[in-house]
Predict the structure.
Amino acid sequence: MNIGIFSDTYSPQVNGVVSSILTLEKKLREQGHNVYIFTISHPQAEHDSPFVYRMASVPFVFLKDHRVGIVYSNKAVHKIKRLKLDLILSQTEFSMGIFARMMAKKLDVPIIHTYHTVYEDYMHYISKGIDLSPRIARKYSKSFCNHVDGVVAPTKKTEKLLKSYGVQKPIRIIPTGIDFTPFKPENYSEKDIDRLKEIFNIPPNDPIILFIGRVAKEKSIDFLIKAMPQLLTQIPDAKLVIVGDGPIRLELEELAQNLGVRNAVIFTGMQPWNTIGRMYQLGDVFVSASVTETQGLTFAEAMAAALPVIAREDESIAGFVRDGYNGQLFHTIDELSKALYQILSNEAYRKQLSQNAIHSIKPLSAETFGHHAEVFYEEILQTYHGLENKATHKHHFKLPFKKSKKNSSL
């Protein structure tokens, strides 16, 4: 098939949506499909593949580190028509998602949408004193998903949420797969890790609690910092390392200062995606208090790095993070402090959780993800074209269009 993936978020950005898209793109190509990425321009984008097409964009007024695409141009439409797409995959509900729907209608091809983000949990970014109810996000999500041909939900939690909104279109639960290779501990030497610790002024033998992700309100990083005073009375040399950046970093630094734990809380800032696998090697345990995830890919990445996971209990990780097997679950800050102490102070227990963590991620392989996605796409294609079975629907494809420039713009 010739497949177009439309997204407002793509490399060089670093987040779970980008991870999902990169994995999907790679697996679909390995399965023999031609995959084209349609995304927005980004000031730091360099060395795109010939199959990445960027549209003009402007900074998003409410989030300075996000951009919004200028979604339509005749030039873009003509170029996309030449690709003879069989299927469109949208990864966002906004600028490029809207454009994806327009192109699906114009080309008369099916569109499948992946619901990555629960927007009702993010309304605080755009309210800015305006009374904007999460109901607006729910209504928009319902409308968008009911105007596509199929929806991918990363977890059962997301599927239930979409059905509660009133989404009527077919929904398939397909957890995002992960290429485990960059996270495997055996790929890194002790010297690699020691050099990392030197960069961030971490003493070599200090126990490290690791968080990786966007430094934003919905991640509830304040929970982690508030757990540190109690933990430090028991493990004085423990360090909380926060990898990432975002709008509330200064607020969290001030919180750590006010709690008297600033020296034990280390902010590394944003790190390049190609070094994230190495960053996981810093940790002795991975922790997150977020309950706004649709899947929580960082948990799986941490497990691939053989880290026990301490997570705030939430339906998005039900059955994945298992209390006492590959990590521990908590509800309160006091429970978090106790869980951290239990894992960091007991090496044998920590190693057992680590081994179990590695076994837990096998169902999330990139190969499984790619296979399940392809099956769903074929089903939607058959339904869209009114076909009764796969035998009546055959594709004869050749590469329809090549571009010579590495960083092309539509």
